Amino acid sequence: xxNLESLVRPxxxxxxxxxxxxxxxxxxxxxxLDANENNLGSLAGxxxxxxxxxxxxxxxxxxxxxKGVRPNQIFLGNGSDEAIDLLLRAFCNPGTDALLCLPPTxxxxxxxxxxxxxxIDSVQLTADFQIPVKDVMQSIKPETKLLFIxxxxxxxxxxxxxxxxxxxxxxFNGIVIIDEAYIDFAHSLSWTTRLDEFPNLVVLxxxxxxxxxxxxxxxxxxxSEALIAVLDKIKPPYNINAATQxxxxxxxxxxxxxxxxxxxxxxxxxxxxxxxxxxxxxxxxYPSDANFILVKVKDANRLYNYLLDKGIVxxxxxxxxxxxxxxxxxxxTLEENQELLNAIAAFN
Length: 348
Known about the structure:
- The protein is of the alpha/beta class.
- It folds into 2 domains: 4-253, Type I PLP-dependent aspartate aminotransferase-like (Major domain) (Aspartate Aminotransferase, domain 2); 256-345, Aspartate Aminotransferase, domain 1.
- It has 13 helices and 11 strands.
């Protein structure tokens, strides 16, 4: 049976979180002399001489309404990478515990594990990039605390079978993290709709992809109130800057623009998926529910360097097991996609 407290590192359970000046006083006042700020103002204008809301209350309330969750089910991080790192720090004892991931997948799970001295166990996805559930369950050990599942998966682009994910959620007594960075480009429902059903579920999302705000560095983690409270306990006090909070709140009023942008990207993705197989350099185009396509080509290294010479940058993923001979191509604008197709068509 899942027991959150038993998974938290003992030192994290015992520790007291840092109390900032904005934690100790939350009311209104005319003179603030408590946070060692520069009261003369900011060279950047606005009110950036003041520390931002450490709990991002206004932003979380807006996100909660859009996502259909409660504000205290939301953790906001400096990109999803901060949430990944904090999950490891909160639940995995260095040198003792392990995480399980399903390659080929997002590389930051391994980077964060190495940084935190957490063992990485892995189970390769099947040839069609799906979860071998039986193999995963057999690979889980007593020290396995976290299971990372990326869906739609990076770099393969496909959504992972939801029934397989549900089986793992029900059978694994650790924490299952479903990374949904690309969920807005897929037809499947987000796992945020089932947070109350699974206390061991964490869902990662981001403003970097569909929302087009990679430069603002804002990621989201959704989970039970108790689990999110653990992440809030160990995060830096002011991890989301004031400018990011303000700009994202403004952007959240433009959901119709988001819808149009996603539709355009999906349309361009489908056009690329139809056109690429017609080119002699291309062997296979894998199904995609993301804003990129994994493409197997006849000579990945040569084609990659050829495109670089043409001023077109794609990602060479051929060194990854399961992605041999593959390039990962982000969906661009209509003009960029046509330039890419023309270049590949001319490749000898």
